[in-house]
Amino acid sequence: MGLAKTVAVLSIIALLLAACATQPLQSVPDAPGFWHGLLHGILAPFALIASLFTDVRIYAVPNSGWWYDLGFFIGIAGASGSGVTYARR
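Predicted structure:
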């Protein structure tokens, strides 16, 4: 096999093995929920910059799951202007 085929096969195997990885469920009584996710999403660009210099995490683990993810997504979308740009004519 050539080098390109070997790299491709190893990459596919690595991706298949990584797809099996899961995060263990932890029951935390006061896990961050929707509002914390929203706040973390809004602050994510600043947290990304801070994470280069300190031990700051952008995403809270463990969190309350789907509600945290929804709040985080809305916060990111709102902080980035929803990816929509308006042009004046």
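Summary: Residues 27-83 form one domain.
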